[in-house]
Each structure stands twice: as C-alpha cells, then as structure tokens.
Fold these 2 entries.
Entry 1:
Amino acid sequence: MQTIGAEKDLAGQKILVTAGATAEKIDPVRFITNHSTGKMGCALARRAAMRGADVTLVCANMTVEPPPFVTVVKAESAEDMFNAVTSRAPKMDVIIKAAAVADYRPKTVAEEKIKKHDGGMSIELERTQDILAYLGAHKPAGQFLCGFAMETENLIENARGKLERKNLDMIAANSLRTKGAGFAGDTNVVTLLTKDETEELPMLSKDETADRILTKINTLRKG
Ligand code: CTP
Ligand code: CA
C-alpha cells in the first residue's frame, strides 16, 4: 500500500484543503447547491496527511467520509466556508480550494416552508463572496494558493483567466466533457496551469491526481 512507508516530504507544512459543495438555504426544507461529492478534496487531504503535512479540511456537505489524521472543519454555506477558511488562512503554507462553492444564494431565506400555488415562481438571488479571490487579494508572502476550475467549454482559456484574476499560483482545470473527469467518479483528468506552464495530466485515480498536484506544489515552492 502507498500509505506504508510513504515519503514524508510534506512534513512541517500546514495545508488547508476545501472539499464538497456548499448549500444555500431557500427555506427550512430546500437549498441550492452544486454537484460535488468531495472525493477530490478528500484525496488531496488524505495524500497530504500521509506525506506528513499538518492538514485542515474545510468541508461542505460531502457524500464521502473525511480521511483520518486531518483536522475536519464543517461548513454548510458559502458564508460558513468563507469564515472557516479566511480565519485559518493566514497561518497556512498551502491552500487548495477543491470545493464547489455556490456563486449565488437566495436573497432572503424563508422562515417557514414555502407552499406551492398555481403558476411559476422565481427566487431572487444575490452573489456570494468569492473565497478564493479574497485569499488571492490577501495572500501572505510565501503562501501557495491553488484553485480548481470546472468548465464545460474553453477549459484552458477560462481556467487561465481565473488564475490571473484571483492571483493564484496554480489552478487545476478539469472539463466536465472529458471522459474520466468530473464529479462522482474515482478518476480525474486535470491540466495544471501556472503563470508559465501548462501541464496536462493523464487520466489517473483521484489519489494519484492528488499526489501529482501536491508534488508540483512542493517543487514550485522549493524553486
Ligand atoms: N470559488 C470560491 N468562492 C466562490 C466561488 C468559487 O472560492 N464563491 C473557488 C472554487 O473553490 C474554485 C475556484 O474558485 O477553486 C473556481 O471556481 P469556479 O466555479 O470554477 O469559477 P468561478 O470563479 O466561480 O467562475 P464561474 O463559476 O463563473 O465559471
Ligand atoms: Ca462558480
């Protein structure tokens, strides 16, 4: 097994990973969310911990169990995740944001269950805060910030735009259109973008993808 005798090359590093999908309440029984099981974020947290890092996993509504030997902080909404992440961020050496964060939330949350009536209905939404953009704007010297981008078209172009706009050191781009990539599966196909490089990884298990991401971050930090 990879766990036994894993090289502790990340010992001494504080790594924060986010995983899962935030849920934004409409009323006491309904919410708005994104597809995300949390598998990719858990793979990153698991591998980082096995490689000796001090790992904090901020997770929202995952369908998988968090890995052992990591500090787990639960968040429900984008606002909870914002608070959980930004309060811990200044002390972190590396932050990897694999969570699917809702971009919009209902402007008001109904206190009682909304009853149906004839005809359609609409819900007014407002923007949530972009956690990653906030982290990029407040990044302490020496901290490494890695985002994820899930796209259905123009993968590299869109992901590169996010890398630049959010002041990231790296972004892991995956396309919903690629076989073996995406939400619920155990494999992923990602392209790692930095300011100067574009590295396409083959289809790998989420644990192997996590290892490649962590190794690249470690190499770039040392460089
Ligand atoms: N992200 C975040 N806070 C938000 C929205 C996104 O921290 N409110 C992070 C995600 O965790 C991910 C990265 O930003 O690491 C990119 O998320 P994505 O949804 O692909 O991009 P957006 O910038 O939200 O743009 P869009 O959804 O319009 O493509
Ligand atoms: Ca988004």
Note: The pocket of cytidine-5'-triphosphate (ligand 1) is lined by residues 78, 97, 99, 101, 103, 128, 130-132, 147-150, 162 (CB under 6 Å).
Entry 2:
Amino acid sequence: KVQQDLVVGGIAYPKDAWTNTPGTILSKIPKRLHDQADHPIGILRSQIESHFKGFTPVSPAAAVVTVKENFDELGFAPDHPGRSMTDSYYLNKDNMLRTHTSAHEVATFRAGHDSWLLSADVYRRDEIDSSHYPAFHQMEGARVWEQSDLAVLKKLNAEMKKQLEACPLLIEDIAMTSGDNPYQAEHDPEFAAEVAQNLKHSLNSLIFRLFGQTRPGGAASNEEPLKVRWIEAFFPFTSPSYEVEVWWGGEWLEILGCGVVKQQTLITADVPHKIGWAFGLGLERIAMILFSIPDIRLFWSEDARFTKQFQAGQITTFQPYSKYPPCIKDISFWLPETASEEHGAKAAGGGGAVVQGRKPFHENDFCEIVRDVAGDLVENVNLIDDFTHKKTGRKSKCYRITYRSMDRSLSNEEVNKLQSIASGRLVDEMGLELR
Ligand code: PHE
C-alpha cells in the first residue's frame, strides 16, 4: 500500500500534489543545533541573547508551520516566488517547513512578549555550494512599545545613542524612508522614526559586539573602525525595511534583514495598540565568519574533530583538519522538449506522480535529487555549460558536481555509484536525457 501520509513529529500530514519534502530533509528536524550550548550555532545564539538584555528567549518546537503562518499572515502576495515548490518544502498544500523565523511573529506577539529573540531551524530549497544548505538557522528579534509610550522610547534612544558614540563604528546609512520604503500610514511618523532609530541603535550595537573586536584573519581592530552599512530593502511584513551589511575582508557582507513591523501583523496578533521593530538574521553565515568555518556542511558534522573544538561561551577559530581530496564528476543532458517545458503541469515533485508534461527545469530540483542521493558528500554543484542547439532549439546543460567528504577519503568507485544513482533519478524524475 502506498504511504498516504508524511509523519513529522508524530503528526500525520496527508500527501498531495504539493508534497516535496524528502526524508533526508526531515531527518534534520530533530538535530536542534541552536539548542546545543557547545555547538557554534548554539554559542552564537547565546552571545546574541546575552547582548539583548531583558529580551525573552523563545524557541518554538515544530519546524512545521502552516502556509498561513509562513506567508499569508505576513502579507506575501499570492504569486510571491518564495511560495513556489522550487523554493520551499511543503508537506502538503497547507503545511510546510518554515522558510524563516518570521513565521512565528504573530504567535509570539500574541503571547504578549514585548521584546523577544526566537531561534529555530529553517528550510529552503537552494543551490549547492559552501555557503548554502537546505537546512539552516535563523534568529528573529523584535521589540514593541505601547503607542502611548513615545516619551519612554525617546529617552531610551538618547541613552543608546550616547553609548554607541563611544564605539569605533563607522555607520553609513543610505536607506530612504520614502518612495517604496515609507513609514506606514497607520503610524505617527514621529513615533515610527523613533522605532526605526531604536532598531538601528540596537543592531549597530549588536554588530559591534559580534564583529568589533577582531578583523578577518584575527588582526587587531584598533587600526580601523568597523564599517556598517544600512540599505533599503523590501519585506512584505515590514516598512520601512532595511538590510544591514558589514565591511569584512574587503567586501560588504549582508548580515540581516529588518524593519518597522507592519501594523497588520500586530493587529492579527491582537495587540493593535503596540508599535515596534523586528529583525531576522542567519546564524550560519555569521558563525562561519566568527569561527572561521569554511564550509556550511561542517555544522552538521558529528566528527569529534569538529564537535570537540567548541565550548559554550567561547568564540574560537576553527582549526581545519586535513581536507580530503575532492572527486569531480560532470553530467551533461538535454532538457525535456521545449513544448512540455512551457506547458508543464504544476503538480509532480517528491513522490507524486508526474502529470502530463513536465514542469520547467529548475536548478533547485536538480540539486535536491543530487543532495538526496549523496547527502553531505556533495560540496558543490556548478553549471559549467549551457547551450541551445541551433537547428532543433533543444537546450543542453552540463553540471560539474564536486564530491568531497569532510571526514574521510572517498573512493572513485563509491562516487561513481552515487553519480549513477543520481543520473538515473534525474532521468526518471525530471525527464532529462543524458548525453
Ligand atoms: N524573514 C526575513 C528573511 O528571512 C528577515 C526579516 C525578519 C526581515 C524580520 C524583516 C523583519 O529574509
């Protein structure tokens, strides 16, 4: 009998045409790296929590949320690309793995918390390289005030401004709060501006705490102030919205997204009289910089040479153990006929039957299959050739797959086996024709 339900955390989710979450992804849910005090993700989480004094730490249980929580209630348009099956993991049409911690904003505000930090594992379908992994961790932070408390907020901002002036920080603020990135019509513009100011003070101070002491390669920080840049951004659930970047190793690194919470979120959460800000940051990206961890797969390693290097409360530099040689395999194929590409049925994916025609080729689907077969042995998937046959109009692609284990040497035979299983599945499930 065909299994009709996907069981996650003891709850059965009936499969449907949206089901696209493989077991390899579900197996990450119980790991909870953010709860491990001596894992880099847990260590970073604690550092941020101790920086935000008085904020309530929250850690939701289920990685499964409703589509309503992840998207609808946050104002995502019906055709927002994040909703697509190529970008997100669905259990079925109503339930999914959260793609961001913002999925818990409404519930956390509804629980009555005014200042909180929520850490959780989040899931996104993506490409494969040293900084992308389909499971990762985010921290959401938020702070709200009663709309009658403008005087309180102004006083707080004056104090924070003074404290920050003592830090060698160079802040470039090039974000507009007009045009596409306005204060909300529902807000007193003076209050909204103070909220945005508090957000900026709070995050500049966090960034200084995390990045202010050292520079890339462990160089001392007393030479140059730390450079931080605020640019405008767009999120459906904040306005104005910002992205914050840090100047690190000769480039601007994007650290987080944030903004003034859309009043609709607070209305939905039954706290319409409050006003405030929220941010969301990716813990892996920051931990990779602070601990000098070169590959995002290492966070999931259970090899003692990795896990034994870290202690609660300490940001230390990762000492790489020997890097094992890579094993590189190319795979070339023709895409299914153009016609079926364009008129591809919407369904299919993850165990579902393929309905007449194919959905358009998407690199994330390709990577999902490779990852499902080879797991953490895939280091990189890179498009190295892409062309259209002049006469027939058919499209061909060639991907280079780099296999490498973090813990041991791979044999060519073992990798050939993986490559052949992956090729077989790519043919069956995506209609590719090997060349
Ligand atoms: N959830 C957003 C993301 O994952 C980040 C964010 C959080 C932006 C809170 C604004 C406010 O990209």
Note: Confidence is low (pLDDT under 50) at residues 339-356.
